[in-house]
Amino acid sequence: MNYYFLYTNSSNKLWKKFVTFSEDILLDSNGTSSLNDIVDNVNNHIFIKALIKGKGILSNSETDFVNTYFPPYARINEICMIREDIYNSFPNININGGEVYDVDIIGDFTVKYKALIFNNIIDCINWDCSKNDNYPIYKDLVLNSSLIPQEIDGFFLKNWSPYGRCYSIVNDILKEYLLSLPESHHFILFEKLKTI
To answer: Domain of life of the organism in this record (predicted)?
Structure first.
């Protein structure tokens, strides 16, 4: 089985006409949450915050946006988000080792998202073969496949980020599903990782 580092296209040219979001993910409308809190959330429902383009301040309403659109895909705090209308237009996938959470934007918004939340937060890094001082961050990352449960389609990788972030890692099955969604190849990118 192959594994891929999932990330989003960060090109300014692509994003100039789209709404962006704060990195905060919340379990309710008050306060931020850790990834562990989100994974353990029994409600399968989280909240995000939209930012006013070019100002870096929070928006409370869709009326703040003129000639700006909600992106079909986003990555917030390394979690992959799919706009709900796109997700609902395709056959839903049963993610082994993961859940699809409902995502609301705090404020007066009709647009909703779905989030891919993995149940497993794993350190499967082969530190003897990996170097964590290069850019892009996945360049010299090597995984120990024996530490990855074979039945799961994705997981959060811990202990690779110097800032405590966990990264989304997916297998071939989940990668192909995501690439089958409309316009996903413009927004969602994958880097094949070395495994031993």
So the answer is: Bacteria
- Whether cis (ω within 30° of 0) applies to the bond prior to 136 is yes
Q: Hey, what amino acid is at 196? A: I
Q: Residue 31: pLDDT above 80?
A: no
User: What is the token pair recorded at 178?
Assistant: 């995501």
Task: Name the pairing type of β-strands 45-48 and 98-105.
Answer: parallel
CB–CB of 144/152 below 8 Å?
no
- Which stretch of 5-19, 94-108, 132-146 has the lowest confidence by average pLDDT? 132-146
Structure tokens at 4: 């891929």
Average pLDDT, the chain: 91
CA 5 distance to own-chain centroid: 11
Question: What is the C-alpha to C-alpha distance for residues 50 and 53, in angstroms, rounded to an integer?
Answer: 9
First to last CA, the chain: 11
